[in-house]
Amino acid sequence: MVGLKEELLKSIWHAFTALDLDRSGKVLSHNLCTVLNVPHDPVALEEHFRDDDEGPVSNQGYMPYLNKFILEKVQGNFDKVEFNRMCWTLCAKKNLSKSPLLISDEDAFKVWVIFNFLSEDKYPLIIVPEEIEYLLKKITEAMGAGWQQEQFDHYKIALNTSREGLSAWELIDLIGSGQFSKGMDRQTVSMAINEVFNELILDVLKQGYMLKKGHKRKNWMERWFVLKPNIISYYVSEDLKDKKGDIILDGNCCVEALPDKDGKKCLFLIKCLDKTFEISASDKKKKQEWIQAIQSTVNLLRAGSPPPHKEARQKRKELRQKLLAEQEELERQMKELQAANENKQKELETVRKQLEAAAARAAEEEKKRLQTQVELQDRFSLELEREKMVRQKMEEQVAQKSSELEQYLQRVRELEEMYKQLQEALEDEKQARQDEETVRKLQARLLEEETAKRAELEKWHLQQQQTIQMTEAEKQELENQRMMKEQALQVAMQQLKQLELERKEALEQYEEVKKKLETAANNTKSWKDKVAHHEGLIRLIEPGSKNPHLITNWGPAAFTEAELEERQRSWKGKKAASE
Fold this sequence. Notes:
Layout: H1 2-18, H2 24-35, H3 42-48, H4 62-69, H5 80-95, H6 105-118, H7 129-143, H8 149-162, H9 168-176, H10 186-200, E1 206-213, E2 220-228, E3 231-235, E4 243-248, E5 254-258, E6 267-271, E7 276-280, H11 284-303, H12 308-534, E8 551-552, E9 555-556, H13 561-578
Antiparallel strand pairs: 1-2, 1-7, 2-3, 3-4, 5-6, 6-7, 8-9
Helix pairs in contact: 1-5, 2-5, 6-9, 6-10, 7-10
Main location: membrane
GO molecular function, one term: DNA binding
GO cellular component, one term: nucleus
């Protein structure tokens, strides 16, 4: 919405600046509300344009009212061409040149709208030379003519020397003068302007006649197709009066080439979510151009990018801003360098003055120095003569002392030679003593090592003998233990044999007792049955023994307590075996 507001403001600015300072602001506001489909607010309009000392635009100015009551309510559901034409009607009569032009008023209106699209976002509105060159190139290419770069460079140089750019009316004069369209008739120029207007303002990416297959009748009809960033509209003819339908484009659409069929050639298919459209181009080149254009539009929708010409305009604007920033930075650096240069000039001037003062002082000091030098020279001449005489005497004394010194040095050299020989003899003796001491220490160390090794060998020998003795004793003790264990094992084997015999005897006795018990049990059962059958529960009384006996319901038992326990164990064993 911010970009839309900026585009609207440029056209409104032209209309507002063309109005006289009277009640015409109400007319502009009313017309804006009408063409922008914004509800009228008569109360706010009258309150804003009430009579006061500040004139018809009130003390608050016209822009606050425009922003609050009109532009903030714009939804985008209005005809941009109609809006621009209303603003053009209000400003063209006052600003359009009266001199004859090679373009019509309709073409001048389109150039004015293109100017608003390409102009800078600052007021008063101007179009910079780079955008003028871009527009003239587009018009020249649309006319099929060659671009005259050298001619425009001369015009650009002349323009830059006087101002930053052109106003909308100056741009219309430039294109209407035919300066860059020489040799072209009015119709060719008008068609070129219309083509550029369709591309930059109406966002027409491509247009032309093609055949479309119907969805119901399946017949082929020629239609004028207009491709825009998110829609393809098709009309009966290129005058765009009778619209037949739209193909809504989005990121899910795709376009595919089709083989020739049903006598139709150069076919391609546009797939959308709800419908599919079969279209036939006039030739293979047109078919390929339309496929590429539609596919590029779908790719832009998927990426969320603006139309190519708007994106290119934004890039050119960013490039100009970048160059402007660099130029401003360069100017700032130049100013800093200029200021630094001026400071250096001031410093150099100060240094020059200081040098001149220093030179004056140096000249005065040089004059004094020369005077002093003359006086010193005379004094030094007298002293020099005196020094010559003293030097001659000294030379004679030096010659004598030199002879004595030579003799003394000869004696010193002889003494030094003798001292060197003595030093060498002392060094030889000292080295011999050191060698002797080294040999003696080596012998002593070898002797100590031999003694230590001998003692260590004796110690190892004693340890070995002790180990042998301990091993013999342990061996004897182990042998004794083995003999004792063997004896104990023999005794245990004998006892085991004895126990085996006793077990066998006990088993034999057990078998005998078992037989006796079975016999007694059978006898007892037969007697019990007889007594129960004939006499009922009768207890037989017999003389008992002195030992205690267990009594049963059928009479005294013939078992002792130990026998009864033996019988119980037998019964339990049988029971466990049966289970």
